[in-house]
Amino acid sequence: MAKLRFAVRKFEPFERAMEACWSAYQALYPSDLEMEFVPLDLEELTTAFFEKKGLYNGDWDIVHINTDWIAAAYETQGLSALDSMLLQQAPEGGEQAWPESLKSLQRFDGQVFGLPFHDGPECLVLRKDLFEDPQEQLRFQEDYGKPLAPPKTWTDFLDLAAFFTRPADHLYGTVFAGYPDGHNAVFDFCIQLWSRGGDLLPDGVSIKLDQPLAVEALDFYRSLFTAGRGLHPESANYESVQAGAAFARGEVAMMVNWFGFASWAQIDAASAVKGKVDVAAIPAAEGGRSPSLNVYWLYAIPEGSRYKQQAYDFIRFAVGQQQDKMLTLAGGVGCRYSTWHDTEINGMIPFYKKLADLHETARTLPRLSNWPHIAHIIDETVTAAIHKDESSLSLLAKAQKKINTCL
User: Fold this and answer.
1) Residue 271 phi, psi dihedral angles, 5° rounding
2) How far is Cα of residue 204 from the mean position of the Cα atoms in its chain?
3) How many other CB atoms are found less than 10 A from the CB of residue 348?
4) Judging by beta carbons within 10 Å of its beta carbon (0-12, 13-18, 19+), is residue 210 exposed, middle or buried?
5) CA 2, CA 92: separation in Å to the nearest integer?
6) Cα torsion angle, 100, 103, 108, 109, sign
7) Which residues contact 168 (CB under 8 A, 6 or more apart)?
8) What per-residue string of b and e applies to 12-28 under the rule 16 or more CB within 10 Å gives b?
9) What is the pTM for the complete model shown?
């Protein structure tokens, strides 16, 4: 009797959706096949895949892997190409079921190494009930001399964060995910850089951190933590899921985070802000353009799996139209066009229609096999900026030397 082991991104809505998907699959295709779901957080996943060689030694048959790691997994031959199975039994709707923005990063040399699981670019997530409250609008106009509205600039963002911070009510203006896991702080740094017109690859080839706009970006980000102006006090300890949970508990007025946390807070029965959520474009520096970031999660089959066909059969079912919708109803973000335009979904989550627009402007991180290592260098630099007095220019120069060695 075969037993599949599935490394699942640890997040209660994901776990719930996967269990429900497996039950539906077993009901439709009865067999003695078993499935073991193993929820792991970000650091545990990278350790399981690369340090413990789980992609290669048969530890896993299906994995949730995000696009940050896909190049490293491909170049170390850790994932199985799906092309022959896709040709024999294509998923419902074929490749046309998904936008191009969710199909490109898992393609290498004309082959496909994963299918979309969960997405939702970064955006500004906000408490609609607070922003639309007449008394809050009057108070903000009196205090700041301008209308209460979603911030267009980082200056506006800071004003709003300070305005909504009321520790006695356990309400804070914003929250950032500052926990050093090689992801969240890196994403926030990139967004600060992009919103100022900067780029990680200004020449299109080499990572360059020791540049003036990167200094500005890091200075602003560290000031959020060191000045403490409107920031949730647990921000340095939270990763993105915990930051999203704080928002869902009603502790935060607005945050820059993944679209999925907005939809989760909007529909989850336990959410204190259910039905009170909206999304908007991320603020930019004066004269800059609003940025967004597209990092998405995939279903993939490790090269070391002994049950590749059985794994693919389940993945093919899991990415189908009904299951993609059910993932969204559980609190994830489905990846199919059909889910984005679903009448029931848009009735429950009125801002869901904004998802396609966010994809139009979302950027991606460099697709480098050593990106996980580079990301950790950036993460260490951002963490040091929060906790040390050393100048941003000095910290970025040191990081640049490490990256040059890495490259």
Assistant:
1) -75, 130
2) 24
3) 16
4) middle
5) 25
6) negative
7) none
8) ebbbebbeebbebbeee
9) 0.90
**Ranges under pLDDT 70 in the chain:** 1, 407
Structure tokens at 297: 């999660």
Helices 371-387 and 392-406, axial angle in degrees (round to 10): 160
> In this structure, are residues 335 and 296 in contact, taking their beta carbons and an 8 Å threshold?
yes
- Give me the residue label for tokens 């850790």: 78
pLDDT at 181: 82
Cβ neighbors of 325 (< 8 A, separation 6 or more) are 334, 336, 338, 339, 342, 344, 345
**With contact defined as beta carbons under 8 Å apart, do 181 and 68 qualify?**
no
Q: How far apart are CA 222 and CA 88, in angstroms?
A: 52
Q: Name the DSSP class of 399.
A: H
Residue with tokens 């929820």: 39
d(CA 127, CA 383): 28
Nearest to 260 by CA among 296, 220, 302, 309: 296
Q: How far apart are CA 307 and CA 315, in angstroms?
A: 12
Tokens of 344: 């029931």
What SS3 state is found at 107? strand
Q: Residue 225's closest CA among 238, 211, 210, 242?
A: 238
The stretches of 167-284 forming alpha helices (DSSP H) are 184-194, 212-227, 240-248, 259-267
Q: pLDDT tens-digit profile of 70-119?
A: 999 999 999 999 999 999 999 999 999 999 889 999 999 999 999 999 99
Read off the tokens for 108: 């290498």
For residue 407, the model assigns a pLDDT of: 64
Torsion, Cα 42 229 363 47, to 10 degrees, reads -10
